[in-house]
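Chain A, query sequence.
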Amino acid sequence: MLKKMLSRALVSAPICMLINQLIGICVSLANADGRYSPVTPAFAARFPSDTVAVIVQLLLIGLVGATFAACSVIFEIERWSFLRQGLIHLAITSAVAIPVCLFCWLPESAAGAWVLVGSWLFTYTVTWLSQYLLYRHRVRALDAKIKQINGRDTK
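Chain A, predicted structure.
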């Protein structure tokens, strides 16, 4: 399992870093002021140069992507319920993603930080619930097919 976690993390981190850079380009184009702005000014102000700020943000985004990818193996532990898998995945990914988001995008107030955390939890819950409902539907459809096949075999 550790090998699978590491291989997923090593693939995901650079992909997330690339996506982060593409988003930076899109935001810069949307600003239409001709400047490339890959990080927020408040975040950049924490570092000696914009280059250092971009590198730190890229590494942190890579860490978030690697964490999500590595933790995806949690959903392959068949002896755990889907709820347990989701709660453990939520706890681990939250412990990484929320601090990174707060550090990189610096909410201006405590209310802003709570909105960020609330948005994270809401999005995770909606995603988890939709996956739960999808898989419940698929399991019921498979059960119905099995019953139908078994019903035919006994006649």
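The chain has two domains: 1-106, 109-155. Residues 38 and 113 are 21 Å apart (CA to CA).
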